[in-house]
Design brief:
Blueprint: H1 3-10, H2 15-22, H3 25-82, H4 85-95
């Protein structure tokens, strides 16, 4: 026989004892501690998952930042190339027909 069958057979298990056992202070404390344990366990799982997701997002944002810094460097290099004085002079001479003045045509005023 198992323990509950022996208790019934011995007559020690009666409804009054069961009610007392069910609503005792110690059992209420144990139940409360069990609920608190489960709540904190789920909270730890939730926080770890949230931390992992935010770390992944941080890593993606850092990669995006690095890509943008590289692109900014390329754009600055391209800007410097397009605005170089030699390029501007060659465009002015070829497309606009501008020439460097000779000394005899320069007029200095005071």
């Amino acid at each position: 026989m198992n323990a509950s069958a022996r208790a019934l057979a011995a007559g020690t298990f009666n409804p009054g004892n069961f009610r007392h056992m069910l609503f005792s202070f110690q059992n209420n404390i144990i139940g409360l501690l069990l609920v608190a344990l489960l709540t904190t366990a789920f909270a730890v799982i939730y926080v770890k998952d949230r931390n992992r997701r935010e770390f992944i997002e941080l890593h993606n944002l850092q990669r995006q930042h690095d890509d943008m810094v590289i692109e900014q460097g390329k754009l600055l290099l391209e800007q410097n190339t397009w605005s170089s004085p030699l390029r501007i002079q060659s465009i002015a001479q070829s497309q606009l027909g501008m020439i460097n003045p000779v000394k005899s045509t320069i007029i200095f005023s005071k």
